[in-house]
């Protein structure tokens, strides 16, 4: 797979390099004349137009948001918001529930039928204190998720914290990987949670690691706040 | 600053270590009896309750989403969605505009007056091909941003791609850092864009680097898709 470079790929690589060479513009070379600047940006514009032309395939993507940092779930939510903005339906299945009523679910009501939201379970492991119940809830949520995955009426399915459910041993990773491949050609699926395995990463089209750059003293003692954590 | 460890910090550190020692539970030690499991999760629950009690401060945060990966803007949007869910007002100022009508702005209409959205400029540098106009637009957007920052009616201000505007030399970083410090005590501000400087990172309370784990062959030739890129 890694060695198969198509003609199309090499055309795209060339365009990417041209774009890089021309640069982003801006005010970084202030002694460049306006005329010269305009000319350069004109060239960049031509490269951009070519780039857009070359990238013509549409594809339902498997997207993984992982890492120890913040933003895994919130980035998925933002994608949901955009997708609804384009008038498509979105389903969110939350596999590990926090101990509070999330701001998301309050905001979700406004979207009516365009957004389906299912919260699995009743809280963290230390809230339920019952493995078997947790496992059953995760499994039944997964069955629900599969029904949305297969349904061509949904453009985006968010499997929130499903990676944590895998890590806790509540559900089999292969079952998830097989399940997400049942989606229609143009459906996108987002999986979130820290600790994605190599195998899951390799099954995905786009993987982002949210990496926390610590500010320990600034974070200490500050409680979970509305909008930020929930 | 780094050496100042308060009593409160050391209590929090102890609790964090206890939580780590007890673990998250789940199905990872399947030969543990149900009774033993319940007991362990009971202990973890006690630690969690203590943790929540210790973390009691509320504070308006400076949040930076940076890095080469995806999710910087979408995570900020998700935070906006949550904040509105809690019935607060949100303002978004977009400093670098994409070449298309974003799905966000379509979705935003549904929130009415709870969400103010301002798109600065008419597109990337290679669309306008005019540095001076770009600079003026960025500066006028910044003035608008400052008026929202100072307004106690807004709980969250998103300065989208402002870090790119700084990097392009369109606006002075110190001006931004001084400006965000004009916020009321409990207002959160999110700054997004790749290439945050050390100085900006040190001014923030919470910094996340969105790191792209590449899948170059899978991404090649795929066009920008609704909900994913715009």
UniProtKB/TrEMBL annotation, chains A, B:
Cob(I)alamin adenosyltransferase N-terminal domain mapped to chain residues: 33-52
Top-level enzyme category: transferase
Gene Ontology annotations of biological process type: cobalamin biosynthetic process
Gene3D superfamilies assigned: P-loop containing nucleotide triphosphate hydrolases (3.40.50.300)
UniProt keyword annotations, A-Z: Transferase
EC id: 2.5.1.17
Any one Gene Ontology molecular-function term assigned to this protein's record: ATP binding
NCBIfam families: cobA, PRK05986.1
The protein, known as: Cob(I)yrinic acid a,c-diamide adenosyltransferase
Species of the source: Prochlorococcus marinus (strain NATL2A)
Highest classification ranks of the organism: Bacteria, Bacillati, Cyanobacteriota, Cyanophyceae, Synechococcales
């Amino acid at each position: 797979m890694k060695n198969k470079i198509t003609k199309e790929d090499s055309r795209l690589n060339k365009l990417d390099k041209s774009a890089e060479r021309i640069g982003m513009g801006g005010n970084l070379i202030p002694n460049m004349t306006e005329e010269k600047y305009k000319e350069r940006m004109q060239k960049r514009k031509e490269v951009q137009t070519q780039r857009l032309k070359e990238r013509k395939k549409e594809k339902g993507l498997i997207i993984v948001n992982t890492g120890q940092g913040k933003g895994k779930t919130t980035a998925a939510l933002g994608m949901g918001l955009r997708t609804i903005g384009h008038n498509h339906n979105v389903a969110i299945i939350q596999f590990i529930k926090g101990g509070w009523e999330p701001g998301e679910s309050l905001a979700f009501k406004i979207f009516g039928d365009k957004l389906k939201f299912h919260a699995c379970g009743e809280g963290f492991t230390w809230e339920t204190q019952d493995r078997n119940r947790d496992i059953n809830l995760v499994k039944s949520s997964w069955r629900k998720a599969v029904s949305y995955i297969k349904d061509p009426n949904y453009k985006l399915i968010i499997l929130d914290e499903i990676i944590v459910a895998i890590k806790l041993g509540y559900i089999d990773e292969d079952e998830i990987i097989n399940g997400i491949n049942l989606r229609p050609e143009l459906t996108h699926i987002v999986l979130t949670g820290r600790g994605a395995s190599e195998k899951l990463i390799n099954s995905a089209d786009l993987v982002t690691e949210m990496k926390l750059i610590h500010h320990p003293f600034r974070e200490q003692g500050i409680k979970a706040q509305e909008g930020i954590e929930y």
